[in-house]
Amino acid sequence: MLSFGGYHVGAFIAADGSRAYCLEPGADAPLSAQDTPIKVSELPAYSISVNDAWGWKGQVRTSAASGQQLRQMNWVLAEHGDTADAAKAAAVQIALWEIRREPGNAAWIDGKYDLFRKNGGSSHIQAGKRLAVESKTAAVGPGVTEPNGALELVAGDSDGTGTVSYPAGTVSLAIEGGTFEDGSTELKISGSERGSVGWEAIPHEPAWSRLNDVRISGKWSLKQKYWPAELILHPATRDTEQRIGSGVKPVIGDNTGVLDGVVATFDSRFAPALATQVPRDIVLREDGVFSDTVTVTAADSPWPTRGNGEYLPLVADGTLYGPFDAPHAESVDPPEGAPVAGSASLAIDQGPGDYSADLPVPGASSGYYYWVWGISEERQSEEVRRSEILEPGARYSDRFGVLTERQLVATELRLETRLLETTLAPGSRVLEDTVRASAVGGSWLRDDAGQRIPANVRLTFYQSDTVPIRQAAAPDDARELGAVFVELTEPETWVAAPPFEIPADTQGWVTVQACVFNEDQSETALGLISEWCDDFGVPDETAELTVEPVTSSKLAQTGAAAGGMSTTSMSALLIAAGMATAGGVLSGIVVIRKRLDRR
């Protein structure tokens, strides 16, 4: 276990040797011996009044755990709980709290986080939260395993022939309007790999028809691994103490289903379709390369191919519009006079699939950018145009302002800070700071409502015994006293930060460093403002703490000879205080270990 200010977090060693963790945030510590472990599929609700040794007082209520919460807790415990690493065990415990977080227990959980942060536990909190987030997707239930793909028809080298590709896990195929290459209408598939099989249409049955369809469907079966909504519970022998638990193994089984059918229609007219997705939303200014992935498919009929497998070659054109200082609504066309950052073209020479484009824009300004892609019949080769496979004059394009087509270069701010006072008289313990920001390399981005994205600035206060030397980061010997936050929404405007009260025992110098960190920004602003810090030890951000001279008479009044407590008595008092602080948790751990040994 790890101790944060005397509060211990981590795993308990149960009598059967397994590692178990607290399952009920805020409930009393499990200091007594545990009963025989049992497997459970529910955790009941509870309500408890808390008044602990770390200053937290109030009512904690937690609802009964849902099946998904039990599944997530099981995954966390089974996959990560059996560890002798104290830091990893602390992250597991924090993850369990996060999974059961709700309004009735959130204040207690956040109160403990404040205690952890004050005692060097910030990284452990973040590790636990990441583990809880991962559990949402990793702790899958039954029936979620499906094929990674679908049936896909490809026309062959002559009319009415082709192949059908099927994903891994396919166990059978059925065809309507044709036969497979062995003459059957039903085909058993052996093995678990993806593959393909040839087919031949039987057109004009029972009557002649300009359009003929071939429909192929299939069934699949895949091994699945899922996490049951169950836990191993180590019940407390005392009703007032909280439950602790460990995980159970995942279940391995089969999942089956039906593949959506696919249809081939034989007609010479061909219409391509575009779907686009940028690989990343944010483009780093120093990188300056805007990328896009264009997925090209056949909208109606199969993509025309020649006998040698050559696909009909096309050209797709893309335009990158921007920068805009605010998001744009989706529309058919770009707004009149929209700025253009660049353009790119793609040779669509491998038929349907994904194609990637990169567009370098050196020194790209802060702002929102939108891709628009299209395939125009007039831009194709003469050979393709003469074929009239594409309708003459046709253009196939996506829309302007599509969210999946948006990229942005984040706002880059420079901060200027200035303390109201750089010398504090004896007895004065409050520092007041002011901050202003300026945007560089472009505009300050705005949100959908046209308001500038707020920048949450962290002002961290450090103590030094000597005059701080200006440098990029705080030196190892600088003592962090705390931080305040100030929100900025306007450039070149001084904003007063909340006053900071300096701890009473602080002497020497206090300097402030201003930073913009991703972790401090709101969820909607995350990634929209670049991280940046001003220097440590800036003169305008450094205050000297002057002290009142100590006279010999004051020294005499504070000595032991003035009827005060003796050295021996003071030591005893300090030892007693230390035991009170470490308190019941430390002694409780000893009791648990002794009782488990007796079992």
Please tell me about this protein's structure.
With 599 residues, the protein is an alpha+beta fold. Helices cover 18% and strands 36% of the residues. The strands form ten sheets. Strands 27, 30, 31, 34, 35 and 36 form a six-stranded mixed beta sheet that branches. A five-stranded antiparallel beta sheet has the order 3-4-16-15-5. Strands 20, 21, 23, 24 and 25 form a five-stranded antiparallel beta sheet that branches. The longest helix is centred in the last third of the chain and has 32 residues, at 567-598. The chain is flat.
Features:
alpha+beta; 599 residues; 7 helices; disordered C terminus; single chain; 18% helix
Low-confidence stretches: 552-599
Task: Assess the beta-strand content as a share of residues.
Answer: 35-45%
Question: In which range does the helix fraction lie?
Answer: 10-25%
Distance, first to last CA? 22 Å
Coarse shape: flat
Q: C-alpha Rg, in Å?
A: 34 Å
Q: Please count the beta strands (DSSP E, at least 2 residues each).
A: 36
* Nearest-integer average pLDDT: 85
Oligomeric state: single chain
**What summary fits the major beta sheet?**
6 strands, mixed
> Strand pairing plus helix content: what structural class?
alpha+beta
SS summary, helix count: 7
